[in-house]
Design goal:
The protein is mostly helical. The protein has six helices and no strands.
Length: 209
């Protein structure tokens, strides 16, 4: 089927663009000077390999999800397994979106090996599972309602919302939230130059790196 190659190509293009977007937003939050095209391009140049990898993973898992959903819809056991499927799907989406959001923001910030990024992403997803769930609902929940409704009109509304404010909103929220998590679990000991960067100095005399 031609759908898988198209889905993968679309995911790759989108995730390469995210590399520049996340880098650009982080620079703004840190109060550093930015140039729209130069900063965006630098973000892509520094982390495009990681974003291509996660874009491929996202594209493959999206196709597998749709396949599993279609198989369930045409199954004679739909009534018995629908509730279980929805429960597992919800858990999987929260875990997947949370891990992916950490992995992308981490790829844009640190020069780490891919396996290290994945390890820290999974660790933070598990350590902060309740707060992560809240942030997933705030950022991705509304869009899932649009795209998962089965209504063609709501689907196009979802595309419109995603295009106008969705990407910027999700990026802003997750870059801000993930950086606060990195300060606690990573930056304080391993990357002190990033600790509390963009924030006011601590009242007890701590430095604003």
């Amino acid at each position: 089927s031609i759908e898988l190659p198209i889905r993968l190509i679309t995911s790759l293009i989108a995730f390469i663009g995210l590399a520049g977007t996340i880098y650009y937003v982080r620079k703004i939050l840190w109060g550093e000077p930015v140039s729209l095209f130069r900063t965006f391009y630098k973000g892509i140049k520094e982390s495009y390999k990681q974003f291509i990898f996660f874009g491929l993973v996202f594209g493959v898992f999206t196709c597998l999800f749709e396949l599993a959903f279609n198989m369930l819809m045409f199954s004679s056991y739909i009534k018995e397994y629908l509730i279980l499927f929805i429960a597992l799907l919800t858990i999987g989406l929260i875990f997947g979106f949370s891990s992916l959001s950490y992995a992308l923001t981490m790829s844009s910030l640190y020069f780490m090996k891919l396996r290290t990024i994945i390890k820290y992403s999974l660790m933070l997803t598990l350590k902060k599972i309740l707060v992560n769930t809240l942030f997933c609902l705030i950022t991705y929940g509304l869009l899932l309602i649009f795209f998962g409704s089965g209504n063609i009109y709501l689907y196009f509304v979802g595309i419109l919302v995603m295009g106008l404010i969705g990407i910027s909103f999700i990026t802003l929220v997750w870059v801000t939230y993930s950086n606060s998590s990195y300060d606690i679990y990573i930056n304080y000991k391993q990357y002190p130059a990033f600790y509390r960067k963009g924030l006011r100095p601590l009242k007890d005399g701590g430095n604003n790196a």
